[in-house]
Amino acid sequence: MTDTELDLLVLGSGVAGLSAAVRAADTHKMRVGVLTKGELPQATTRWAQGGVAAVLGGDPDSTDLHLADTLKAGAGLCDIEAVRVLVDEGPLRVNELISLGAIFDRDTHGQLELAREGGHSLARIVHAGGSQTGAEVERALVEAVQLTMAAIHEHAFALELIVEAGRCRGVTARFPDGSVHEVRATNVLVTTGGAGQLYAVTTNPLEATGDGIAMALRAGVAVADIEFTQFHPTALSVEAMPRPLLTEALRGHGALLRDTTGERFVDELQPRDVVSRAETRRMLELGADHVFLDATGLESFDTRFPNIAKELRAVGLDPAKDWLPVAPAAHYTCGGIVTDLRGASSLPGLWAAGEASCSGVHGANRLASNSLLEGMVFGPRAVEAIEAGASGPEASGAMRTVLGMDPDLPDQVPAGVIGGRFVHLEPIETADGPTEDPAALRNQMQRELTAHAGVLRDASSLDQAAKVVADVLAAPRADTVADHEVRNLATVARAAVDAARRREESRGAHTRDDFPETSVDFAHRIVFA
Ligand code: SIN
After folding, report:
1. DSSP sequence for 48-83
2. Average pLDDT in the 17-41 region?
3. Ligand 1 mean position, distance from CA 324 (Å)
């Protein structure tokens, strides 16, 4: 592993990573390695339900409308150039996936069936198997990458970035036998997904521990917008980790939200932050731990959403007759490693795409079904930039926040560019003593963040969360994957809570009960570097 230098090492095996790996290995014949801590298909991508938002139908939809919807959801922090790239290149990438073998749902005329979801002004979501879009995208990409010469390393856990002479040269990784090796590469692409496991109530699988974002934070690579965890409004309210998701598309098809008295209380087609906030407030008012999704009026539930129907029946619910108990659950990490329009991070040789990145397309709140889209657009973009000989960041996209701007003078930000306030966190040293059970530490932090840094937060709840996170970071630990995951979660949590304390306003997915208004004083990113 130490003697062969790869052209590209991809960390993670979701839509962003595998789209990039296929393009690099197949189209550009690069020497590619894919390193993933689980098995290849075991990425968060496969859990994505709703679909891919892309303007594939004609009039009256347009990329301008998709752009406008995305900017509105992002609550003033989207980078318009990055969103433009997303909406313009999206349809091409969806068609490429279809050519690779992904099968999307079609109507009786053979046309792609388009669904509507919250925050979208029109039906523009392509989907597969009703609500199994991520699984189908992952299946097609896993098959495609297996046909390439890319070297696949499964059950290999990336520990730290190797940085030499100001450039990323690979990672150290722990292999299944417990040995640690360097995997060296001219370029490293981080596509390790988000950190939904920060919360006790989440739709994300156990593997979503923010590993790539945490490595970047430890290496001083710019990370931003990390206080914006998106909460999905309709996770089934059952004791399960992760919580089963009831796709946004159900509301797109007409399902209604009702409180525990049966009353409707929100426009179901608003973006997720609006709906999750309304639910949380109503639950607090009524002393309830859920509201209901009423899908009893939907036609053909079982044929349209077969996997959800199956999950519901498994817990004794019949969507044709029963209102379905739901509550908000942590769903998506809107921020991450800051990238330019080509996926370059602030560290030359290090690239990021998908949920691990902060490309600027989501701002303070991601629009539904823009996540698979981001992965399939920006993963290949990084490969094209590497192929063209680029190695470092340029002042485009979210990266303009980081490059060439005086952090103390946000008023000097040129028009159209989102400014940044820079934060440096000193590392917290690990204490000596007997190691603590990583599962217990993870549970403790999850409960704490859910209670005090969740849909609603305020200064005192965040102070409390910060203390627990600092204790978890300092806890003595062993050299196991579970211990490394907890450390990574706590590293991301520390930045997320710190940014949430500094952001004394409410914007997008970040709601401060003590600062309920959006403030022009905070129309900037909080960047850790
Ligand atoms: C959903 O189907 O509601 C989830 C899709 C997404 O996260 O955008």
Report:
1. --S-EE---S-TT--HHHHHHHHHHHTTT---HHHH
2. 98
3. 17
Residue 44 near ligand 1, beta carbon < 6 Å: no
Q: Which atom of ligand 1 is nearest to the CA of 366?
A: 8
List the structure tokens of 375. Answer: 């992965």
Say if residues 232 and 194 touch (Cβ distance below 8 Å): no
State the CB neighbour count (10 A cutoff) for residue 206: 15
pLDDT in tens, 48-100: 998 999 999 888 999 999 999 999 999 999 999 999 999 999 999 999 999 99
Told to judge if 272 belongs to the known catalytic residues of this protein, a careful annotator would answer yes
Q: Which of 362, 333, 332, 375 is nearest to 492 (CA)?
A: 333
Tell me the pLDDT tens digit for each residue of 329-346. 999 999 999 999 999 999
Phi, psi of 8 (to 5 degrees): -145, 125
pLDDT of residue 2: 46
Residue 418 CB coordination number (10 Å): 21
Give the DSSP letter of residue 109: T
Q: What is the DSSP string of 474-525?
A: HS---SSHHHHHHHHHHHHHHHHHHHHHH--S-BTTBEETTB-S--GGG-EE
Alpha-carbon distance of 526 to 523, in angstroms, equals 10
pLDDT tops 90 at residue 416: no
Asked which of 135-149, 296-310, 399-413, 424-438 is least confident by mean pLDDT, the reply is 399-413
- Is residue 3 scored above 70 in pLDDT? no
* Cβ(365) – ligand 1 distance below 6 Å: no
Q: Does the predicted model carry a pTM greater than 0.90? A: yes
Q: Is the CB of 374 under 6 A from ligand 1?
A: no
Asked whether 247 lines ligand 1 (CB < 6 A), one says yes
Amino acid identity, position 243: R
Phi-psi region of 524 (alpha: psi -120 to 50; beta: other; left: phi over 0): beta
Would you give the DSSP letter of residue 27?
Answer: I
Q: Of the listed 169, 272, 494, 512, which one is catalytic?
A: 272
Beta strand residue intervals within 29-179, DSSP E: 32-35, 52-53, 114-115, 125-126, 151-153, 157-164, 167-174
Backbone φ and ψ of 382, nearest 5°: -60, -40
CA of 131 to the centre of ligand 1 (A): 9
**Which tokens is 413 given?**
């930000």
